[in-house]
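Anyone able to model this chain together with NAP?
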Amino acid sequence: MNKSNKIYVAGHRGMVGSAIIRELKDQGFENIITRTHSELDLTNQQQVQEFFSQEKPDQVYLAAAKVGGIFANDTYPADFIYQNLMIEANVIHSAFKSGVKKLLFLGSSCIYPKLADQPMKEDALLSGYLEPTNEPYAIAKIAGIKLCESYNRQYGESHGIDYRSVMPTNLYGPGDNYHPENSHVIPALIRRFHNAKINNEEKVIVWGSGNPKREFLYVDDMASASVHVMNLDKEIHDQNTKEMCSHINVGTGKDLSIGELAKILKKVVGFAGEIEFDSSKPDGSPRKLMDSSRLNILGWNPRVDLERGLTLTYENYLQNIMSQ
Ligand SMILES: NC(=O)c1ccc[n+]([C@@H]2O[C@H](COP(=O)([O-])OP(=O)(O)OC[C@H]3O[C@@H](n4cnc5c(N)ncnc54)[C@H](OP(=O)(O)O)[C@@H]3O)[C@@H](O)[C@H]2O)c1
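re: yes, here you go
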């Protein structure tokens, strides 16, 4: 791995992109280039082509995407499919045209069918119907994987390109979105437990029965997995993936119920009241766990356990609200 490589991180202000920058700097990569959304709109083909032909990076981490919760996905399906398809097509094609040899595309566990066997293995892709609420987003993410695979198949040998994909489970950590109506379960609960603690409330109501099980990965672990996969030896990578099933799951291999998660968060935040579950609210899938054994065989394991990750996340939340 060449530490002087010129590396473009797309989406560097996002939760994952900023963690990738921290990881790259920690590992001694210094030649990192970035552009904000207002400096470079990745849905704009001409702007993206000009950027790549001027900068000619060696490696690209594609962590820019239009991301949102169930409500946003259900309300703005056209924005989710159009913007994500455009970002991926523009970045991957312009990267290829400008001679980028190595690119890492970040997808999501929502690419897998709604009723996929648990834990979900990489080859569950395209084996059944997707969850309808985020189908447009998932289709765009599947297209991103297939773009990487198709460019590798057509130009891998002739142009020496090697474009890879990673599929993270649910992520949390510094830089997360704490929006009151549009945030994922961990930031939403941190916010609610914190406010309940400050206001001396007696209880916090958690939506659903608390029974569904989910998997969570600390974002710095996701960043370290991304840099690991990007720099894996090609022979080892190719031996453990398939030409048309090349994506790699990134998770902890462990899940827990939302009820158990709420108990840990109550302790981390220091809320002394009760947790009440509102079973009239929908639960979603009973279980969503990824099989990350492909990545484990490739030499990567997570470092940050859930309680420690949640503690670091709450510390970061407190720092942010104090600096506002
Ligand atoms: N968060 C999770 O739990 C999770 C789980 C699985 C997979 N992932 C994947 O990880 C990737 C990054 O997610 P994240 O959580 O870091 O999302 P995020 O915090 O919303 O960051 C996304 C970044 O992309 C930028 N962006 C969006 N549209 C753009 C455009 N047209 N041109 C230029 N920049 C644009 C955003 O900039 P602006 O904010 O300025 O628009 C933002 O900096 C995504 O592919 C997502 O699917 C995330």
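Residues 11 and 63 are 5 Å apart (CA to CA).
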